[in-house]
């Protein structure tokens, strides 16, 4: 009787985890109930953009928590649906959108799809195999056939993209005390710097807004020379204008911007423009 009570207690407090995945019981429960809702929906026929909006909306008001992926030790596939930052919000929604369209809505399908999106070549190895710069994330997920960077097609101009912030500031990244990871990040930065990127400067967003569709991925650029992207989210339409659905570090939750995205960027000196990408299916 006593033993059973102890086992029950252990089950209660234990996080669901294997060697690969870190997911609290609360997150697992939330994910399972979303997967169930999506299984019994008729959403599979919607476009990826429409799905991004529908699924993203399920996460409105979720708490903003950053650095949830930064655990010490070996790299784990972190699934945290109760605390999201701008990137993990985006990855969570896109993962759910893709498995909804494939109609493969199990927890294991979710793990596989998230790993595909989050890691270089779709395989989690160590810390350095995670795609750290978002402009690289866009490029690599385009290579994987997951999305298209449409910025240049909709009026984007050259974006001189030379990120080096991580290798210049290893003190902000606990894992970069490992010289192998630091070296790998430097190589990744070189590869990014050698590519051609485009952006829509914020002064031009209003004019080009008609080409942006609900559910498109919005990546916000910065005038800081050593950084590529400072914020990400999804385009949504409100009263005929494009707004940003995002995990906001200011309001500490997932929300839809009060003002259209062109206004949202105007007042912020750290934000210079946007890259726009669209999921393929
Ligand atoms: C997940 O997010 C919650 C906030 O709801 C936070 O308390 C928790 O530490 C996070 N878990 C991980 C593994 O980061
Ligand atoms: C991903 O694949 C490319 C090309 O095949 C290779 O150069 C690179 O080292 C791989 N990256 C990882 C982290 O395996
Ligand atoms: C301005 O943009 C930066 C980078 O995205 C962000 O961290 C900051 O919170 C923004 N400021 C305001 C007032 O929204």
UniProtKB/TrEMBL annotation:
SUPFAM superfamilies, per the entry: Cysteine proteinases
InterPro entries the UniProt entry points to: AmiA-like, Papain-like_cys_pep_sf
Signal keyword on record: yes
Keyword vocabulary terms for this entry: Signal
Pfam families in the cross-refs: AmiA-like
Signal sequence segment: 1-19
Name this polypeptide is given: DUF1460 domain-containing protein
């Amino acid at each position: 009787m006593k033993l059973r009570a102890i086992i029950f207690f252990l089950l209660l407090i234990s996080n669901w985890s294997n060697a690969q995945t870190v997911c609290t019981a609360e997150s697992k429960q939330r994910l399972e109930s979303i997967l169930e809702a999506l299984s019994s929906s008729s959403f599979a026929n919607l476009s990826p953009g429409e799905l991004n909006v529908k699924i993203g909306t399920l996460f409105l008001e979720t708490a903003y928590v950053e650095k949830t992926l930064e655990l010490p030790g070996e790299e784990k596939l972190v699934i945290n649906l109760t605390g999201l930052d701008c990137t993990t919000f985006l990855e969570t929604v896109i993962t759910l959108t893709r498995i909804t369209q494939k109609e493969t809505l199990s927890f294991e399908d979710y793990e596989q799809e998230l790993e595909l999106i989050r890691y270089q070549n779709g395989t989690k190895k160590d810390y350095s195999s995670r795609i750290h710069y978002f402009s690289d994330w866009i490029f690599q997920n385009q290579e994987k056939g997951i999305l298209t960077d449409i910025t240049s097609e909709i009026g984007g101009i050259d974006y001189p993209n030379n990120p080096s912030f991580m290798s210049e500031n290893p003190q902000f990244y606990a894992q970069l005390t490992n010289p192998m990871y630091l070296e790998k990040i430097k190589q990744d930065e070189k590869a990014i710097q050698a590519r051609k990127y485009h952006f829509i400067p914020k002064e031009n967003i209003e004019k080009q807004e008609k080409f942006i569709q609900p559910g498109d991925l919005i990546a916000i650029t910065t005038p800081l020379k050593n950084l590529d992207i400072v914020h990400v989210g999804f385009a949504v339409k409100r009263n005929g204008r494009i707004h940003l659905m995002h995990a906001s570090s200011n309001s500490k939750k997932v929300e839809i911007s009060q003002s259209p995205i062109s206004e949202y960027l105007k007042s912020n000196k750290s934000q210079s423009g946007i890259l726009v990408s669209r999921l393929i299916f």
